[in-house]
Amino acid sequence: MDQIAVYAPKMDDKAASIYKDAVSKAWSAYSRISELLKEDNFKLMSGIGRIKGQDEKNIRIDSEKKAIENGRYVLPICASTSLYHTISGLVLKRYIRMANACDCPTEAREVVAAMVEEVRKVDPDFISRIGEGIIEETLENKFLHDADLGSSFDIDLGGKNSKLISYDKNAEEIVAESVRIATGCVKSTDEILEEILNPGKNPYLLDTLNNWAHSPVMRALNNVNYVFKKRLSHTADSQDQRHRMTPACRPMLSKVHTLRPDYYTPSIVEKNSEASALYKEIMDMLWDSKNRLIDMDVKAEYACYLLPNAVNVRFIQNGSFLNFLHKWRLRLCFSAQLEIYDASRDEFEQVAAVHPRLAKHIGPPCFNRRFGSDMPCPEGPRWCGITVWKGWPNVKRPF
Predict the structure, then answer these.
(1) Per-residue b/e over 25-37, b at no fewer than 16 CB within 10 Å?
(2) What 3-state class would DSSP assign to 214?
(3) What percent of the chain lies above the pLDDT cut of 90?
(4) Exposed site from 70, 228, 242, 372, fewest CB < 10 Å?
C-alpha cells in the first residue's frame, strides 16, 4: 500500500475534494502508525524469534509485516485490490443476472459491465445469447434502517466477540446415531465420538488436505449446527468470509453505518500513546468526512467507502459442526489474525460448555497433529515459536 489506490465514486467537485482529502490523511496515518509500531512489534517478537532460531534481521522483517498489518486498520475500505479473476461463462451469466439484485453495489456493477464488454470484443455472439431481464425492485430496499442496533447488540454479546445463540441440544447423540446408521455399528456414543474426533484414532484429522467431507462417517458431523452472534472489524470479517461453509447474514454498511465512530482498535496500538492518539484522530476524521458527504446528499453507498477497515461489522453466522471444526482448526492457530482467533476461542469454549464430548479434541493444527511428531506444526519454519500443543487450551497467546 505504498501508493494511494482507491475506488472513487462519481460526485461533485466539493464532495470529491472531501473524499480525496480524507483518503490522503488516512494513507499518511497508515504509514506513520506502521512506522511507530515496528519497534513495539520487534520487542514483542524478539524472544519468540530467538526460540525459532531467527537472527535479528529476520525478526525485524516479521515485525515490520506485523506493524503494517496493524496500520492497515486506518485505511478506508475504498482501498483497491488488484487480482486475476477466472470464471466460466455460466458464472458470468449469473453476474449479469445479479448485478441489479440483492445488495450489489455500483462498483460491482461497473466491474461486471466492463467484463461483459471485454468478452463482447472476442465473442459477441456469446454475450447476445445470455441476456436476461433485470430485477426492478430488490427485497433489501423494502427494509429501511431506522435504529442504531450496535449498542444493544454489544450488550448482548456480554464482552465476547462471538456468542453462541442456538445449537442442537442433543448434538452428541445425533452424531453418534448418524454414525450408527451410516456404518451399521452398535458402539456407544462415547466410543463413537472418541473414534471420529480423537486425532490419535482418526487419520483424517491429521490430513492437511482436509478430505473429511468425503467420509460417510465424518459427514455425521454435518447433522448438528451452531449459530453465533458476532462482531468483527471489516478487515477481520473479510478474512472470515474465506470460510464459505460457515455463511452469515451480513449487513449492508450503507444501511447500518453510525453517526459516531464505531471501530476496533488493536491492543498493540492502544499501548503506544502516539499511535493510539493518531489512530483515534483518523477514525474521527473518517467518520466526520463520511457524515459531511451524506449531509451534502451524497449517496450513503458512496460515503461509506470512507469508513476504515477498523469499522465494526455485526452479523449472525451459522454452520455445521464439521465446517466449524475445519475453521477452528485453522483459526485457533496462534498465527491466525487475532480478532478471528479471539472469536474462534469464544466459540470453542462455548461449544465445549454445552457439548464437552464433541469439543474435547478441538484445537489448532499442532494440537491435532501432536501424535507421533516432535514438531507438529504444519507451518514448518513459519511456526509461531510456541509449543502450543503441549499446553492447549491452557496456553495464552502473547502477540
Answers:
(1) bbbebbebbbebb
(2) helix
(3) 75
(4) 372
Q: At 116, which amino acid appears?
A: V
Asked if residues 6 and 76 have their Cβ atoms less than 8 Å apart, the reply is yes
* Residue of 107, 79, 135, 98 lying closest to 301 (CA atoms): 107
- Show the cell assigned to 329: 482448526
Q: Which residues contact 263 (CB under 8 A, 6 or more apart)?
A: 73, 233, 283, 308, 310, 311, 312
Q: Which domain holds residue 331?
A: 164-247+314-391
pLDDT digits (tens, 9 = 90+) for 139-191: 666 666 656 677 889 999 999 999 999 999 999 999 999 999 999 999 999 99
Q: Determine, yes or no, domain membership for 243.
A: yes
CA-nearest of 159, 340, 322 to 226 is: 322
Give me the CATH number covering residue 379: 3.30.1360
Structural domains of the chain, count: 1
Residue 240 lies in a domain: yes
Please tell me the pTM assigned to this model.
Answer: 0.90
CA distance 140 to 112: 21
Which residue's C-alpha cell is 463413537? 192
User: How far is residue 60 CA from its own chain's centroid?
Assistant: 26
Q: What is the largest CA-CA distance in the chain?
A: 74
> Which triple of cell numbers denotes residue 216?
460417510
Domain-embedded: residue 58: no
C-alpha cell at 213: 467431507
156 located within any domain: no
